[in-house]
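User: Okay, second chain of the day. Same drill as before: sequence in, structure tokens out.
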Amino acid sequence: MHKRLLRGLAAGLALAAPLLALAHGISEADQQRMLDGGYLMYVMLGATHMITGYDHLLFLFGVVFFLTGFKDIAKFVTVFTLGHCITLILATYLQITWNFYLVDAAIAISVIYKGFDNNGGFQKYFDMKSPNLLAAVFGFGLLHGFGLSTRLQQLPLGDDNLAILGRILSFNLGVEIGQILALVVMVGLLAIWRRRASFKRFSYAANLALVWAGALLLLMQLHGYQHSADPDGFGFPRQEHKHAHEDMDVDKAADPSRDKL
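Assistant: Same drill. Structure tokens below.
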């Protein structure tokens, strides 16, 4: 059953990968709306970016998976929020950035880490206690905020320092709104699931699936980085790749000499 679940998850993520990659980036249409609109547009973009930010959501899912009390959930979510606010605001304002594929690859590792930790991986494989969870969540929050910053810095934020700060804070506010909406759904579904016997039976498989999902995201991001760093290093340089697709055009594939008997 567990293997079937993991195979299904891997196949689903593989099929959805192009759509997920598109959803997580900032499209040209979004960029134009930012130029034409005001701070409200940045709030909306921040909210939609978090709601479609599957890597952020997978990590949060792992964080709250075994938390049942409101105080514990609030504590860990607050620490994560503080971490990503710090790097989102400071890195964007100071224009500190890096290749977003590599940042997202590191974020994928945070997803793997959380699933591994939830399944007692440190105890089973390293015979040690798990690292301090609160500190880990804060550290990964810093990492996730840097990932958000690399995306926000794709936008022209202007030259006025005060206006730039306003746009950053607006985007950050949207991120928090999106995070709250996503958490309400996650926590609600988990609360319902915990009342069923299947939770104990499949909690290990669910977190193992989290590890595999993170691993797949890691491979996707590294593949994207490799393409961006060396687009001609895959045996089909960009121009040749384009021509290959043109050659597959149906009209060009027809053989007019066979139109007559």
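The two ends are 57 Å apart (CA to CA).

User: Thanks, on to the next one.
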